[in-house]
Amino acid sequence: MRLRYTLKGIETTNVLGNCLSMVLGPGDLFLLSGDLGAGKTSLTKAIASGLGIEEKEVTSPSFAIIHEHLNGRLPLIHVDLYRLGPHADITEIGLEDYFDGENVVIIEWAEYLETPLVETALKIDLNFVDEQSREVCLTGKIWIWRERFLLLDDCMKASDE
Q: Which of 9, 25, 93, 123 has a 20 to 30 Å separation from 45 between CA atoms?
């Protein structure tokens, strides 16, 4: 199942992040990929904000690779594989420890993963349309994401009004 949106500026990215935070639950995995500078970290900040985590606490974990944010509605694990490059091995960085069914895990540069992760993940691709706009494509298995996609789409449409 797939949803597509055009994000016009940071405001729309924030709306998407807040809407996503409303439909996620413990154990969810978001795999973010796309152009450098397309807004993966901005989207993660907006999701964190929707979980009650202060946006200023959320920064790109490029050098630390993994940041834990445990003070929100759900624990958020923010991962950035950019520095590891293609063929990143999640066992080397200890990422498997976070797949305990309690954390929400967001992985930036998921296209660098050596092996695909669980099929239950929500894949989020962000790409430039122009300097101010991004296209986002969300892809998830219908049996997991169908109802949540309906809620997400309702939330996004309500923000347009």
A: 93
